[in-house]
Amino acid sequence: MDPMDVRPVLTSVSSWCPGGRPPTSVCRMKVCVTSMCGTYAYSRPVVLRGLTDNTRFRLLCSKSSLLREFGVRTVRLSTANTFSYRKVDVPLQEYVDDFLRPQSTDALGSETLYFFGDNNLTEWRSLFERYEPPPYVLPHTSAAYSFGIAGPGTGVPFHWHGPGFSEVIYGRKRWFLYPPEKEPHFHPNYTTLSWVRDTYPHLPEDEAPLECTIRPGEVLYFPDRWWHATLNLDTSVFISTFLG
After folding, report:
1. Domains of the chain and CATH, by start
2. Is the terminal CB of the chain with fewer CB neighbours within 10 Å at N or C?
3. Helix, strand, or coil (residue 185)
4. pLDDT greater at residue 43 or residue 194
């Protein structure tokens, strides 16, 4: 992908620290401008550009703004392994101060606490109401948001669920995807970072995943039941729209 095609991130108001992970120019997915590329809705992932203008939402997701509005509110952290069994509740301010740091290459997923997915929709409604979601839905589905903040090197190892969209507000998120019938080889308690370091470089070409790095101004659509793992390259703020 050409980064010049992406809307610029508002780094001057963010104050979320960069992560320093090396970028990747690999994109094994179709990239569409504006259109949903309907032929992909049930068949394969697609990167969409030019869908919405979430400039206002980005301002509200700056570090200072989120801590001012939500710093004392409780967020639920999940372990960053495939099944995310353990949950821990802490104030957002404490999460940012004490947990939001680069992922250790030796840490297990069960040892990594990560704010994603478990959102109190009542407490976060004032923020979510400012988000402009992708203007597409699948028949007989409704949308549900999943909001998160994560440090560089963190992510969720391979798992699957229903279809949806994922958008990065700040930072960069690298995705690895396999079709439903092609289950990847992975340990559910190893982090995506360890998989990228230890397993991915040794995969034969025919076992390589689809992959792409999503930046602000881009939306990834993932179809139903596709295996996927994520890796945050920077301190990242992101929101997904699940279609269920």
Report:
1. 3-7+24-243 (2.60.120.650)
2. C
3. coil
4. 194
